[in-house]
Design goal:
The complex is a heterodimer of chains A (about 800) and B (about 400). By secondary structure, chain A is an alpha/beta fold. Chain A folds into 3 domains: about 375 residues, Thiamin diphosphate (ThDP)-binding fold, Pyr/PP domains (Rossmann fold, 3-Layer(aba) Sandwich); about 200 residues, Rossmann fold (3-Layer(aba) Sandwich); about 150 residues, Rossmann fold (3-Layer(aba) Sandwich). Chain A contains 27 helices and 24 strands. In chain A, helix 25 links the parallel strand 23 and strand 24. Chain A starts with 8 loop residues before the first helix and ends with a helix. Chain B folds into 3 domains: about 100 residues, OB fold (Dihydrolipoamide Acetyltransferase, E2P), CATH 2.40.50; about 70 residues, E3-binding domain (Dihydrolipoamide Transferase); about 200 residues, 2-Layer Sandwich (Chloramphenicol Acetyltransferase), CATH 3.30.559.10. With about 400 residues, chain B is α+β, with helices and mostly antiparallel strands. In chain B, helix 3 packs parallel to helix 4 and helix 7 packs across helix 9. In chain B, strands 11-20-19-18-14-17 form a 6-stranded mixed sheet. Chain B is globular, with a radius of gyration of 26 Å. The longest helix of chain B has 17 residues. Classes of the chains: A alpha/beta (about 800), B alpha+beta (about 400).
């Protein structure tokens, strides 16, 4: 699309062939004796120590799940236990060279990576920093428990601290690193560079790509590791993330050249739960091959022997260097084996004992111990001693972490807001970064900004609507809010399909590229999962994102990223992360069943998302300003049929200057005494037309525009219903399962004694959206309001309804599910 | 084939009727012509009979329920016979005309009427808001006429009820033993009519005493003849009044709106009749054409029909003037309430004895006080007084009038 890149027919039609470089497979074969000189004895012992801790930790979890006991201590643990017994070398080798600036994202099976990366960080941080981290984390709560009666060194204390916080988290204790809201599959500790693990297979790939994007744009030190398993290669979002991290534009169009500093680290244990990847469910033969399908650099992909910790360390070192030279991304296929089942409850029906024993015979941990003995670093007795002492320490910490006095759970009865308070952070900030925002020219030089100055900011003159081209339209109001924020918040970036040059499908970004450089405004591939997932990762590192899915209908493509990632990370991290992401989506019209759906209810259903849908320029700018200054994820819906709408309600027009409309406040668009109509979205204008019709019958209608559905302040609506006693609620969403029904339930309950008729809900029919010419029979129209009123509230003198709102019709539709 | 019995429409204006009482139970066997249930319309009571023999398969309503006319009420058929569904069937008839074009193609798609049968089966419906208002004001909401969809009483209905001075009740003390009576249809109609009369006209009452010594004498004479023995004092008052109405046509008139007064040549005399169910006012059409004998007989027969509940609805309207006679019950003077759009109503009191000073000395005479309520919008005090004088003169000259009739 960019005109700077010529799409040359001669070049494109040139004959030739695509060539590949060989992809190394287990090239590194050195053993401890070969690299003895490169490591200190202490380092070699620490690698073993870390592997043993992981093995013991995972064994503890396995025993708890299988026998209800860890050694002789009983504890009923019924949470998840996706363990990595057998994979320890792959985790420890990964973490060995990582420093405090390097961060990792993990999977449901990441206890090993979490422990290894934490221990690696502890060894690299000085005592003062470690003490600071421990004192400042959660007010020093974990530290106060583990330092009692402990007289060892600071790093030893830090290891106690870390294992205790991790265990308490796994056992769902309020003193856990995430107050018990993360648990086993979502453990993390960000001060040590351990970012949230993800229980959705491949879920970390797009998020880690977004984190790497942040590091690249803000030129931060360190790399990002996206941990994933071989099974995740079957997931679309993983492929999207591989491509997103490798896009050509980083080299061809951005000033800040170079790929994203991300290493996709596939811990390849041969199985995706039960499906054997190579040989059964995948086609790659060897996972490393997929790098060749992504970019000419083949993602610097390699297969590495994950049973040889030195091979892993060597590979990570080389990939880290590539990333630091801005030649990323990179991909590692780290072959290993999981001795335990998929989870503790899995009896491994898909594997033979013969196969498991064959791998156990080559156990990396045992083989490493043997090498320590061979190389005279530790004696067999010392190794035994080490393992015993690690076991004893874990047992002590286990008892502390499961002690109801020392490590209680949240008391949701005594403190009912314990989880509630983390659902939204509600911490507005005008800007999230320091320094001057990167821009191409002063704002006043932007041609669209200049054009806007000449437009009427109110949509009417002398009571008549002005032509669309002469007024500030909704698309202009959105543009203004975004442009203002680009010039205020240096952390703000926007990406989505066709934003740059094209100006987004309906012109909201038109001419934005004249002011904002590539690295802050770029075209994403058609990868909805990663557009949202990368937004989440970018925000996790402290940035603000305004991303866009062209159509609300494409939300399904980003389902996991919106519903499981964007919505959840504030609360799953007990408020340690904020999620300042505004996800804009257009609600289409005229384009039929897959391009005209209003899916706000899906977003409202999942806790953790704010949902707004402004339909006037004044509301569009004010709500976008509020969303772009907030700290919470906001689903910002727009009607594609209304982008050209001018302001018809605020007589002073759309302010040039900054202003905010609080999210969650409905607005009375027309006052009336006899009937309240509450709308959400574009239906407003049809409700207003209905109000004109009602006036002919002497019925004064109060029309309230909800503007937001999460959160929502019911006060104004209740006040109105107390006055009118009658309520119709309408939107363009299909009626079944619509949030309108929540409104009806809540208002019906809150204003029951004031109701003079049942609350009516008018949604779109529970059909596929038909062609444009039939839309008036699908989306609520002005006369639908009168039809429903006539039949369910009070007959209108001389009115003849055209649509049925009888009980019988309601029952019929229910029976048929239509 | 099962037969659906519907609520009959007794007159063109009838929208609904009260299903007052069932004579049969569901499951009962009936013969053709057996009484099924009794209905009360605005003005009368009537029994509905079985159209065929069979078993009552289904009763759709209980006692005391208002049912829209032409709606199914019960089903008669053979045991085990399938009963049609009533969820959709009634709506078909009521489908709005417009809907008949595209929407009516789909069964059940049709928009419904104002009140469906569901409403009626569940008894009086009232919105929470209206209920709150009704309770706060001591209004028994069963007395309130609903205007809401599905027969629901709404806030405006209660407000209208209150504005019209509808009956309210003090909340009963907990220990008091009170009987709550649901208003019958006829009671509701009377209540509404009376309120309407007082609220929509400028009525006042003036009285005059008639010397009825000659009238009494005339009646004594009539009594002696077998043919005329049944003529009562009341009949004679009516006769005298009808004659006066012919003389003072401005009282034999209707004021249907604020622009017109319709003065009638013929006298269609309304006669207030006290019945067990309440006040009824049958009309004697062209009463001015009747001789005393015919008049007397007609009065007797319509009164009897009212008391029996068999008066046809058509005969409960169309009057041009009304007479209410409470003399038989010892009332000497009262203020009858107009029956709009009529502009006059005459109340006849009991026979009293009075003394008055005349040129010949003190006169002791039998007297009757006539109470004329008239609509001052239509009739002024003077003409009203002249009308009363005319009646009094007719009473005084009753024999001459009767003789004139004979010729």
């Amino acid at each position: 699309m960019p005109k700077s890149l010529f799409y040359d027919p001669n070049a494109k039609r040139q004959p030739g062939e695509i060539t590949f470089s060989p992809i190394p497979v287990n090239a590194y074969q050195k053993k401890m004796r070969d690299i003895r000189a490169e490591y200190t004895d202490a380092d070699l012992v620490s690698l073993f120590y870390d592997m043993v801790v992981i093995r013991e930790f995972e064994t503890m979890m396995q025993e708890l799940r299988l026998t209800g006991k860890y050694k002789d201590a009983s504890y009923d643990y019924s949470g998840p236990a996706h363990l990595c017994i057998g994979q320890e070398a792959a985790a420890v080798g990964q973490a060995y060279l990582l420093d405090k600036d390097d961060i990792i994202f993990g999977t449901h099976r990441s206890h090993g990576e979490v422990i290894a990366k934490g221990f690696s960080a502890i060894r690299k941080l000085d005592d003062e920093t470690l003490m600071k981290v421990m004192r400042e984390f959660d007010g020093g709560k974990q530290l106060s428990v583990v330092e009692k009666g402990f007289h060892g060194t600071v790093p030893e204390l830090a290891i106690r601290f870390y294992l205790y916080g991790l265990m308490a988290e796994l056992f769902g204790r309020e003193i856990g690193f995430s107050k018990g809201l993360g648990n086993s599959m979502h453990a993390f500790f960000m001060p040590f560079g351990v970012y949230p693990n993800n229980a959705i297979v491949g879920g970390s790939a797009p998020i880690a790509a977004g984190a790497a994007l942040y590091k690249k744009i803000h030129r931060q030190q360190g790399i990002v590791i996206a941990n994933a398993g071989d099974g995740s290669v079957g997931c679309g979002p993983v492929w999207e993330a591989l491509n997103f991290a490798s896009m050509d534009q980083y080299r061809t169009l951005w000033d800040n050249k170079g790929g994203l500093p991300i290493l996709f680290y596939f811990t390849n244990n041969g199985y995706g739960m039960g499906g054997q990847t190579a040989g059964e469910t995948m086609a790659y033969d060897m996972l490393a091959r997929i790098g060749a399908g992504v970019n000419p650099e083949q993602m610097h992909a390699e297969r590495v022997d994950g049973f040889n910790v030195f091979a892993v360390i060597d590979a990570v070192r080389r990939k880290k260097e590539i990333l630091e030279r801005q030649q990323g991304p990179a991909l590692l296929d780290v072959v290993t084996y999981r001795f335990c089942g998929h989870s503790a409850s899995d009896a491994s029906p898909n594997r033979t004992q013969e196969e498991i024993r064959a791998w156990e015979d080559q156990d990396a941990l045992e083989s490493y111990g043997a090498q320590l003995v061979e190389n005279d670093i530790l004696s067999a007795e010392q190794i035994e001693q080490l393992r015993l002492s690690i076991g004893a320490q874990l047992m002590e910490l286990f008892k502390t972490a499961t002690d109801p006095e020392l490590s209680p759970r949240m008391d949701l009865l005594a403190r009912g807001d314990s989880i509630e308070k983390y659902m939204f952070s509600n911490e507005p900030h005008n800007k999230l970064g320091e320094g001057a925002p990167a821009v191409l020219a002063p704002k006043e030089e932007n041609p669209r900004w200049q054009r806007n100055q000449k437009k009427s900011r109110y949509g009417k003159k002398d009571g008549k609507a002005l032509p669309s081209a002469a007024v500030i339209q909704i698309r202009d109001a959105i543009f203004e809010a975004l442009l203002d924020k680009f010039y205020e918040d240096p952390s703000l970036v926007s990406f989505g399909e066709d934003l740059r040059d094209w100006g987004s499908a309906y012109g909201t970004y038109k001419d934005m590229e004249k002011s904002i450089p590539y690295e802050r405004l770029f075209n994403a591939p058609i990868s909805e999962s990663t557009i949202v997932g990368a937004s989440v990762g970018y925000a996790m590192l402290g940035g603000r994102v305004a991303s866009e899915l062209m159509y609300c209908d494409f939300l399904g493509r980003a389902g996991d990223e919106v519903f499981n990632q964007l919505a959840k990370w504030q609360a799953m991290t007990a408020g340690q992360l904020h999620m300042p992401v505004v996800l804009r989506m257009g609600i289409g019209s005229k384009y039929g069943a897959q391009h005209s759906q209003e899916w706000s209810s899906l977003c409202a259903h999942v806790p953790g998302l704010k949902v707004v849908y402004p339909v006037t320029p004044y509301d569009a700018k004010g709500l976008l300003n509020a969303a772009l200054s907030g700290s919470d994820p906001v689903i910002y819906l727009e009607s594609q049929s209304l982008y050209g709408m001018g302001e018809l309600f605020q007589k002073d027009g759309v302010p040039v200057d900054y202003y905010e409309i609080p999210i969650g406040e409905p607005d009375v668009k027309r006052a009336g005494e006899d009937l309240t109509i509450l709308t959400f979205g574009a239906t407003l204008y049809r409700a207003l037309a209905a109000a004109d019709r009602f006036a002919e019958y002497g019925i004064g209608v109060e029309v309230i525009d909800a503007r937001s559905i999460v959160p929502f302040n019911y006060d104004k609506v209740i006040e109105s219903v107390k006055k009118t006693g009658k309520l119709i609620i309408a939107s363009d969403a299909c009626q079944r399962g619509s949030f309108l029904n929540d409104f009806a339930q809540n208002i019906g309950s809150l204003a029951f004694d004031y109701l003079d008729a049942p609350v009516l809900v008018l949604g779109a029919r529970n059909w596929v959206t038909p062609v444009y010419e039939l839309e008036k029979d699908f989306f609520p129209q002005a006369e639908w309001f009168l039809d429903a009123y006539h039949q369910k509230i009070q007959p209108l003198q001389g009115y003849t309804p055209t649509r049925s709102y009888t009980d019988a019709e309601m029952l019929r539709r229910g029976k048929l599910g239509v | 084939m099962a037969e659906i019995v519907t609520m009959p429409r007794l007159s063109l204006n009838e929208q609904e009727s009260l299903l007052a009482e069932w004579y049969i139970a569901q499951g009962d066997a009936v013969q053709e012509g057996d009484r099924l249930f009794c209905i009360e319309t605005d003005k009368s009571t009537m029994d509905v009979y079985a159209p065929k023999a069979g078993v009552i398969l289904k009763k759709l309503y209980g006692d005391g329920v208002v049912v829209e006319v032409l709606q199914p009420v019960c089903v008669i058929g053979a045991i085990g016979e399938e009963i049609p569904s009533f969820d959709e069937a009634p709506q078909q008839e009521q489908a709005p005309r417009q809907a008949a074009e595209p929407a009516a193609q789909e069964r059940g798609q049709q928009a419904a009427s104002t009140i469906d049968e569901r409403a009626a089966t569940e008894g009086a419906r009232i919105s929470p808001r209206a209920k709150r208002l009704a309770e706060a004001n001591g209004v028994a909401y069963a007395q309130v006429l609903p205007t809401g969809a599905q027969g629901r009483v709404m806030e405006t209905d209660v407000l209208r009820h209150l504005a019209q001075g509808g009956p309210v009740q003090a909340p009963p003390a907990a220990q008091e033993d009170i009987a709550v009576h649901k208003l019958t249809k006829i009671r509701r109609v009377i209540a509404a009519n009376m309120l309407h009369s007082l609220g929509s006209t400028a009525q006042l009452t003036q009285t005059m005493t008639a010397n009825i010594s000659r009238l009494q004498a005339c009646r004594e004479q009539l009594k002696h003849e077998e043919k005329t023995a049944g003529v009562t004092l009341g009949d004679l008052y009516c006769y005298a009044t009808i004659k006066a109405l012919k003389q003072c046509g401005y009282v034999n008139a209707l004021m249907p709106n604020e622009d017109e007064i319709h003065e009638y040549q013929a006298v269609h005399l309304g006669l207030a009749v006290d019945t067990e169910r309440g006040l009824m006012v049958p009309t004697i059409f062209n009463a001015d054409s009747l001789g005393i004998l015919e008049l007397s007989q007609t009065i007797k027969s319509v009164a009897a029909a009212c008391r029996a509940g068999s008066i046809p609805p058509e005969q409960l309207k169309g009057g041009t003037f009304t007479i209410s006679n409470l003399g038989g019950m010892g009332i000497s003077l009262f203020t009858p309430i107009l029956n709009p759009p009529q502009v006059g109503i005459l109340g006849i009191g009991c026979t009293d004895y009075k003394i008055k000073k005349t040129e010949k000395g003190m006169l002791y005479y039998p007297a009757c006080t006539l109470s004329l309520t008239y609509d001052h919008r239509a009739v002024d005090g003077g003409p009203a007084a002249r009308f009363l004088q005319a009646i009094c003169e007719n009473i005084n000259n009753i024999s001459a009038l009767l003789e004139g009739e004979a010729h």
